[in-house]
Amino acid sequence: MTLSTKTLRRGLLALAGLLLLALLLILLYPRFLPTYQPFGTRLLPPRVAYDFNLTAQGGQSYRLSDFRGKAVLIFFGYANCPDVCPLTMLELARVYQALSPSEQARVQVLMITTDPKRDTAELIGRYARAFDPSFIGLSGDPETIAAIAKAYGVGYFTQSAESPEQYLVAHTSAVFLVNPKGQLELIYSRGKTAQTGQMVQDVHWVLSRR
C-alpha cells in the first residue's frame, strides 16, 4: 500500500468522523436550547379541562369542547362587578387585540358568570361583547355554575347585600388558559393579565405547540 493511499484512507476516516459528530450535534442541539418559561403559572402536567355546557346570548349553547383547536382564556366574574371584572376583561381585550388576525381566529375568551341569579345569558353576553365582539359571556343555573367553578378552583359568595337585588359577589379573579388540546395549562392570578406583552408571548407559545 502506498503512502498516498494510507493518507487518503485517513482523510476519509477523519471526514466520516466529522460527519458523524455533526449529525450527533444536530440531533442533540435542541436539548440544550433554553426552554420557554411561561409567564402564567404552569400546570405540570397539564390536566384535561373540565367540560361544561352553558348558554350564551341569543340562547345558543356552548361546551368548552366546542373550542377544541383553539386557546381558550376563561374568566369567572359578573356584570355588576364594580372593579376587578371590568379591569380584567379590558386587559384580556388588550391581549386579544395585540394578536394577529390569524392568531385571533385561534383564540377564544369566555366569561362565566358568578352571579347566575341576576346575570341572564343576554346580560352577561352583552357585557362580555362590550369589551370585544368576539368575547362570549356564559350563564346557567346556580347548580351548574357552582359545579364548574369548583372544578376550576374558583370560589365565590354574596356579600354586602343591601337588598335581595343589590349585592356584591366576592370571587376568585384568576384567568385560566386552556390549550388547543383541551388541557388546562396556565393560570394567571389577579394582576398578571395587565402584562399584555407577556400574556401575548404565552398565547404564542401555546398556539405554536402541536
TrEMBL record:
InterPro entries hit by this protein: SCO1/SenC, Thioredoxin-like_sf, Thioredoxin_domain
Query: Which named protein is this?
Result: SCO1 protein
Citing just one GO molecular function, the answer is:
metal ion binding
Q: Which organism is it from?
A: Calidithermus roseus
Family statement drawn from the similarity comment of this UniProt entry: Belongs to the SCO1/2 family.
Q: Keywords of this protein's UniProt record, alphabetized?
A: Copper, Disulfide bond, Metal-binding
- Residue numbers binding Cu cation: C81, C85, H171
Cystines in this chain: C81-C85
One Pfam family this sequence matches: SCO1-SenC
Superkingdom of this protein's organism: Bacteria
Domain (Thioredoxin): residue spans on this chain = 43-208
